[in-house]
Design brief:
Blueprint: H1 13-28, E1 35-36, H2 37-44, H3 58-70, E2 74-79, E3 82-87, H4 89-93, H5 97-109, E4 112-113, H6 114-120, H7 130-141, E5 152-154, E6 165-168, H8 189-217
Antiparallel strand pairs: 1-3, 2-3, 4-6, 5-6
Helix pairs in contact: 1-2, 1-3, 1-5, 6-7
């Protein structure tokens, strides 16, 4: 089963990373915002707090900016002698601040649980508790078609996981089929041999103890 996307065509991987980076830097380094193309490239390609890590060229970022401008999700401004860029996510998508924050973090780090989202967005916005995070996620998942359709989807719990993760839908449909239980791998021949040797040794010890007890009782 797959979900639908609010965009046709959906955002590309480069557009998703550019938009998420602009949203992040607007809150974490406001003195440097809006961003120049060079600083935006650095933010997009940083190795921390990114999933996956990308290596976007200036050309790829410029193309992504063009696509985002056409969707009114990014604006171009002039700052000194450099062209700078700022996001317009909240108005462009018609969502409240808290929802935009959660979308930005999902764009940068991929699927996460509500607890992970609350922790990771702490520098962006301080949610009161996990329940408030879930409330905004539920609202975005249930957004009616008249407003553009769902923006996020709850993924099936992974085997062994306690919480479900959430994914954004701006980049296209997400596979929501339950993950199969991982099949147990058969032990290797070397491991079987070691286990058999250990069993033989234990049996020999038990036999020796039994013989000692018999002699002691005789």
């Amino acid at each position: 089963m797959t979900s639908t996307s609010p965009f046709d065509p959906p955002l590309t991987a480069a557009e998703t990373r550019v938009l998420g980076t602009l949203m992040e830097k607007a809150r974490t380094v406001p003195d440097s915002y809006p961003l120049t193309l060079n600083s935006l490239q650095t933010g997009c390609n940083q190795k921390s707090a990114r999933e996956p890590v990308l290596h976007l060229s200036e050309h790829e970022i410029a193309a992504a900016l063009d696509g985002l401008r056409q969707r009114t999700l990014v604006f171009e401004t002039q700052g000194g002698r450099s062209t700078r860029y700022e996001h317009n996510t909240q108005r462009g998508l018609g969502v409240p601040e808290q929802a935009a924050v959660l979308l930005g973090m999902l764009m940068l780090r991929g699927p996460q649980t509500a607890g992970e989202l609350r922790l990771n967005t702490e520098r962006w916005y301080k949610f009161l508790d996990i329940a408030s995070v879930e409330a905004f996620l539920d609202e975005m998942q249930d957004r009616p078609a008249a407003k553009g359709g769902p923006l996020v989807v709850r993924l099936p719990r992974q085997p062994g996981a306690r919480e479900s993760r959430w994914a954004h839908l701006l980049g296209g449909p997400v596979d929501t089929a339950p993950m199969p239980e991982a099949a147990a791998e058969p032990p290797s021949p070397a491991l079987l041999e070691a286990l058999m040797a250990r069993m033989d040794a234990l049996e020999a010890q038990v036999q020796e103890l039994s013989e000692r007890l018999e002699r002691a009782g005789a």
